[in-house]
Amino acid sequence: MKSSIKRYLIGRPLKSNELGEQKLNKTKALAILSSDALSSVAYGPEQILLVLVTIGAAAFWYSIPIAVGVLVLLLALILSYRQIIYAYPQGGGAYVVSKENLGVNYGLVAGGSLLVDYILTVAVSVSAGTDAITSAFPSLHSHNILIAVLFVLFITTLNLRGVTESASILAYPVYLFVIALFIMIGAGMYKIFTGQVTEALHSPIGTPVAGISLFLLLRAFASGSSALTGVEAISNAIPNFKDPAPKNAAKTLAAMGTLLAILFSGIVLLAYYYGISPNEQETVVSQIAESVFGRNAVYYFIQFTTALILVLAANTGYSAFPLLAVNLAKDKFIPRMFTIRGDRLGYSNGIITLGFASILLIIMFKGHTESLIPLYAVGVFIPFTLSQTGMILKWLREKPAGWRVKLAINATGAAISFIVSLMFFLTKFTQVWPVLVFLPLTILLFHRIKRHYEAVGDQLRIASCEAATPIEGNVMIVPVAGITHVVENSINYAKSLNADQIIAVYVAFDREEEKKFAEKWAKWQPDVRLVTLHSQYRSIIQPLTKFVDIVEHKSKEMNYRVTVVIPQFIPKEGWHNILHNQSSFLIRAFLLYRRDVIVTTVPYHLKK
Amino acid sequence: MKSSIKRYLIGRPLKSNELGEQKLNKTKALAILSSDALSSVAYGPEQILLVLVTIGAAAFWYSIPIAVGVLVLLLALILSYRQIIYAYPQGGGAYVVSKENLGVNYGLVAGGSLLVDYILTVAVSVSAGTDAITSAFPSLHSHNILIAVLFVLFITTLNLRGVTESASILAYPVYLFVIALFIMIGAGMYKIFTGQVTEALHSPIGTPVAGISLFLLLRAFASGSSALTGVEAISNAIPNFKDPAPKNAAKTLAAMGTLLAILFSGIVLLAYYYGISPNEQETVVSQIAESVFGRNAVYYFIQFTTALILVLAANTGYSAFPLLAVNLAKDKFIPRMFTIRGDRLGYSNGIITLGFASILLIIMFKGHTESLIPLYAVGVFIPFTLSQTGMILKWLREKPAGWRVKLAINATGAAISFIVSLMFFLTKFTQVWPVLVFLPLTILLFHRIKRHYEAVGDQLRIASCEAATPIEGNVMIVPVAGITHVVENSINYAKSLNADQIIAVYVAFDREEEKKFAEKWAKWQPDVRLVTLHSQYRSIIQPLTKFVDIVEHKSKEMNYRVTVVIPQFIPKEGWHNILHNQSSFLIRAFLLYRRDVIVTTVPYHLKK
Predict the structure, then answer these.
(1) Distance (Å, rounded) from C-alpha A599 to C-alpha B566?
(2) Residues B251 and B351 in one domain
């Protein structure tokens, strides 16, 4: 039953050689990998205005030069990541680039912050989308957390179904959102050019403003840059593209950059011309849409697609996280299970981990994840900076044709990203300090995990000189709980293996019982030696372990191996198990982990 | 570490022969077994007034004759249970009495309702006590559920420490409560006799009241009887008493009955004389205390001990539930695990189950468990009625000396209990109907469990004619994942057992890898046959199971037994396990439950 629910939710398992069919074409890739970046235009321009409004509405014209700065950064990032895509076509993005050019620890800083960042992306964007939806339907407001969790579960299931299927479903909302914003920007611009918008709404560009400072402008710039989170996703996900993967990825990246630039600058311009001031009750995009259209069907269409894309922005995390995890796991910095493809050929452990972690965050923050946004922006710009710096070193080292131009591009990207990261630390330290705690801890953990894997590998490798101890004979211990078919079955099995010695062990709770059992046994199995142990503390494991220890000690001297043969009856129905004291499970786990004995379970299947 | 926390919380394990020291003397037994009954005087009289107030304050004098009725019922119950104690000194109360005299199903009705009832006792009384405490400290009010859960955990831990220890700790609050109420009743009566209370406060007894009906009076009587819940606890817990257990239990029962009668009638009288009217904001006991003392230290002392005893009333459930569960488990109606004594000689599984279930109820009802009170009262009076009826039949059958008096006592008890139960169904059907659903389901479950145990017993019993199939030889299958020391270890073990055939099985995910491995294997272990399986769906279990099926099928024909030998390395630290794909666990569980093969785990302990 469990498996048929699984089938229904995620579909039939796919064969390994069907992997090719799970690859993305450009249209789908754009939809699924850019939802995060595109959705951030819904709040990026607002972030700029929120900083400027502290000086006054007269300062709003600064949003134009700041937006230009953001566009320059965007251009630098897109060009840099384009170079990264061609240079590292196997994917991995910032992690691989930093690791190979700057060293392992820089790679881990980039990888660790991105890993955490994707979890934040999912939590933050689903919470934001849920807020947008419940604002429209206030009666749902008290169920915010539940709705957000259901969204995460939905997106997780979609991704478990496989990359192409989730892309097919998610493509519609993403393109609808782009169309909606295009309509809004087009109509808004038309009104401006046809003179329907009065000049009085905005102060002209260049108006001197009292109280403006470079610090404030840089802060506004850093805030606006949060619209660029998500542009690295494509470089992590190259292996998901149809062949030729790098070329398709580069084209998709260019398309995304263009869309992002148009939407971002369009919204900034409209906000400026229409004199929009950010306020608590209504988002900037909503205000623009209302100014342009009034509250008609188009307005609601724009609001609806915006809410939708905020939720679906989470999906970018689902595309990038598992692939980044594979890269880290291949290098043994995180558990190996992340490298295994699930039934539908997606890296299901990564997908499930991401879903689980973001649900945890949503519940911990009770759905109010806005305070995580700066943390999340820093987590993006640190790897941006590192990967660009890595590329600089690469060009300096390799000096391919035209390396000067390439270096210039990456150097610009690195410099601006570095400044943005710095700005976050300078202007929002109270919100971003956790990075300084968690990042070192994460890297420490990565190293400990790797050290463990290497130690295990060394010990298992057959080349190592340690010779196997010869086995001269076998002692079998059979714990018995009564005179039953289950026990008979196990004793017969032990006999059939021609062990050098078979010892049945009975743990008794009182002396009377002990004597009686010994007598019965002598009649039933006269040729099998019985040892009875008295348990003062009503524990079976303790006296048994003590006995096993003694036998093992003796056996070691003679190079005998000790096997504990556990009789176990298997009930016909699974639920029957709760009706039986599963001492055998405890005994097995205890002996396997704590003692060097072999544990054999002889099942006796009940028929009713 | 885990075990040292356990030691700290519940103390060192006790030897089985230390059981005698865990028995209760009368003073302690009274404290721990009567907290439920005594605490109910805090709300019993109020329940009567709440019914009468629907007619008007003039009807309050009826509380006096109703209280007399309750006292008669109390006397009948105490005398009946006294007879039960002597007749069934091994404990078990209503369950045993009904089962032996009326038949198994009546016993199960009594046992089932009491079992559920003790869970309700714990949930209801802890919630009520928590409410009383948070009423005093309103800032804690939003943490009601958490506080209630912590109380349950505290009482559970106390009971896991053992009966005598919890009795020692709980004796103080119980006796403090009794002293507090004695002071209040004494002072209140003194004021009445010295004429400090005006006659105008209450209407004289016998005043005619319009609208009064027999139905209403019976309803008030039934409500007042809820003060008698908990009187059966002592009869369930006789085995916990010091020798001579039945005599000590009977004396304790008499003491409890006396205390209960004094406190109950005292509160009813004071409420009548002081003209107390029940209201939402303040309990009746609080109003009496205020009338007698004003809001001074004595008042707060009374309030505090009342709150405390409400919480501790839960403890009665902890004394009675595990012992009742033992009786049901011995008769195989509930899982056998309830018969096992824990480290501290208490029946820890019963204690933990009770704690867990009541926490669940508290969380489900968000701490508002008042609505469960009628359910809980019905759950007490049904077994009351059944056990008294059982005793009637016993006297009629056995006719011992003086049986007529004994029969009269039990008949009175049975009749009144029956009327009270009926009244609950007639007057509060909307709150008590779940009993009619859950009780039959519970009894059905009891029977299914018993049937299962009996079926298992039949199949295991060696006397049954089924002869064991002879074992003519052994085939050993070793799933191998690589050429490592772990595998070498397992292969050497299989060889040492002189199995008739050893087959190594390798599951490959691609053809290339498959070929390479086969070549390497042939060089490394030329004398062990290797079978490689190709897995299209990246599953190890599926192809392996298929292969095991084939081998098993062939082996059965020749009476060979199949053993799957699983190589498993055991990391040095427990947490390392999450770093390794524990396929071996899955394989073992799957093969053991689904297939009839023996599973052997050969551990290879890593040293670093």
Answers:
(1) 10
(2) yes
Residues A154 and A185 occupy one common structural domain? yes
Which residue's entry shows tokens 């976050």? A424
CATH of the domain at B186: 1.20.1740.10
List, for residues A468-518, the tens digit of each pLDDT value. Answer: 677 888 999 999 988 888 899 899 999 998 888 999 999 888 888 889 999
A531 forms bridges with which residues in the sheet?
A505
Nearest CB to A509 within list B16, B537, B592 = B16
Its pTM stands at: 0.73
Report the chain B residue with the minimal C-alpha distance to residue A341.
B538
Range of the domain at A574: 473-605
DSSP-assigned letters across all residues of B477-546: EEEE-SSBHHHHHHHHHHHHTT-SEEEEEEEESSHHHHHHHHHHHHHH-TTSEEEEEE-TTS-SHHHHHH
The bridge status of strand A560-570 relative to strand A529-534 is unpaired
Asked if residue B459 belongs to a domain, the reply is no
The interface pTM score, or ipTM, of the predicted complex is: 0.74
Minimal Cα–Cα distance from B346 to chain A, Å?
12
User: Which chain A residues are within 8 Å of B498, Cβ to Cβ?
Assistant: 497-498
Q: Do A455 and B606 touch (CB under 8 A)?
A: yes
Please determine, for residue A351, whether its predicted confidence score (pLDDT) is greater than 80: yes
In this structure, the answer to whether residues A157 and A45 fall within a common structural domain is: yes
Enumerate the residues of chain B whose CB falls inside 8 A of the CB of residue A448.
Answer: none
| pLDDT tens readout for residues B179-220 | 999 999 999 999 988 888 777 777 777 777 777 888 888 888
For chain B, what is the domain count? 2
pLDDT number for residue A465: 56
Cα end-to-end span (Å), chain A: 21
- For B347, which residue in chain A has the nearest alpha carbon? A538
- Tell me if B457 is assigned to some domain: no
Structural domain contains residue B465: no
Q: Do B603 and A598 touch (CB under 8 A)?
A: yes
- Give residue-wise pLDDT tens across range B398-454: 998 888 998 998 898 899 889 888 888 888 888 888 888 889 999 999 999 898 888
